[in-house]
Every structure is written in structure tokens, then in C-alpha cells.
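Review box. Two proteins, two foldings.
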Amino acid sequence: MKATQKPPTTAPVTPADLLRMAALYLRRHGWHQGTYYAPTDTPTPPACAVGAIGMACAGQPVNHFSDLNPDDRTTYLDAIAALTDYLDLHYPICLVDDDGFWLNEHTSPYSWNDDPLCTAEHVIAALEGAAKEWDRLHTQGGENR
């Protein structure tokens, strides 16, 4: 770094940060099933788990990761992967076909969010739990590994 360059004043946003912000978004604006966002005229519509991660990442509805700034895509996709890993451990959905083969080996946050037994409290708890798990695996003494 050159002496004339200013050091960065903010730490990079981690997947855990996005997951916590998504949980906060759902608390403030509501949870939704069936689509990423509830049809409404408000700029902050109720959202599903992944929709809330998109709102936390971009500050506006995100319907596909290609809608994101290229610099934000990796963190967004890593946050969804962290949520998927957390769901695999704590809320597994094991879909088996007629022959006894697993249809998918990971719990999809999309189908899990839309399960009729899922509630806003479940989603918020899972987002916060996934954030804690990400921090546990990727930080050491408050610093990124």
C-alpha cells in the first residue's frame, strides 16, 4: 500500500453478516412463502429466506444471482450454501423415490421455506443458526481465517 492510499475503513461483508441481516429483514418486513417476495408495491416486501438474503445483499429485491453486482455474487451464494449446510444438519428433508433412492442429497432452502410446517420463527432461527455456524467455522478470535 502506498503512503498516499487510505486503508479500508470497513471490513468485508461475510456470509454470516448477510444471514444475520436477512433474519433482521424478516423480523422487520415479514416472511413469505411461494415466491421470493410477496406481491406488493412497497420497496421492502415480505420475503422468503433466500429473498431476504438477496435484500440483505443488494438492498432491493433480487430474483436471480445474476441480478447482483459481480462483487456481491460470491458472498450471496456462499450465504445460501451456509444456510443449506445448516438445514442439512438441523432440518433435513429426505426425499426418497419409489426405488429407495434419494432425490436430493441436500435440503433446499427454497422447498424448506415453502413447507407448510415451516414458520417465520423457524426461518429466522435457521438464518441466525447458520450465521453462528459460519462464524464458528471461518473466524478465529473475531478475525476471518
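Next protein.
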Amino acid sequence: MDDIIDLTEQQLNAENISRSVILPSCGAVAMFIGTTRDNFDGKKVVKLEYEAYETMAKKKMKEICQEIRSKWKLGRIAIIHRLGEVPITEASVVIAISSPHRKEALEAVNEAIYALKAKVPIWKKEIYENHDSAWKQNQECAWSNGSKEKVFIKTS
């Protein structure tokens, strides 16, 4: 089954992504939509910026699809991540997975988002109201050694 993997600077359309995984043989579609929130740790966030090592990121996203397919009977998988600027309330990532039954789809989506955060070389920079910014590292990242989130702050 062909999985849908993409990195794009375009606004993500969750409805279209959801439709892309629907199959007649599947009775469930589970989704995760990660959106930009306007705050972090008491600071006002005005937008996020994402960068990726695109070739490696797509390779790792395909590996995640293979890993979750080995655990559950699934229909289609879509993992789409946005790059560049992502304004407040807009989606930065959408994962949609279809399966014959809801349990498999829900479990697969949960595993997919954690694996994406842990394994895929995509970096997030938060831009704050005062024009400071901070590159954020996911706690799930293999290179974080299980420590608390590391923050690298660049001031204007």
C-alpha cells in the first residue's frame, strides 16, 4: 500500500488528508493534528518556524510507516509535516491512518506521532512577541538522552 509522506510549506488541509486515507475496506480513520499555540512556558508565541533535513526526514517517515504496519492491520497512512512559518492555530503536522477497526487506527496514530517527534530530523523555532526566538528540541528525540527539553535562545 502506498503511504503518503510529505514535507510542505503550504497550509495543511486536514479534511483533504483525511479523505486521502479512506478505503472501502476500512471502517476507521484516526487523525492527529498538531497546531501552533500562542504560548509556551509563560511566553507569548507569535509563530513557529520549521526546518528539516528533507531527504533524511522523508526516509525516516517511511520507516515509521513500515514499523507501524508491522504491528497493526492498516489501510492507508498519511504523514504530512509543514516547513517554514506556521502561524498561530494552523496545523504543523497531520497524521491520518485508516484501518478496518478503530483500535488499530488509534494506536497507530499515537505511535506515529511519538516516533515522528523522536526520529525525524525536523526542527522547530518558536518566535516570541518580544522578537526573541528559541530552537526547541523534543523530549522524545533519541539525541536528548531523556533529559528535559533543551532550549537554545537567540535574542535580537
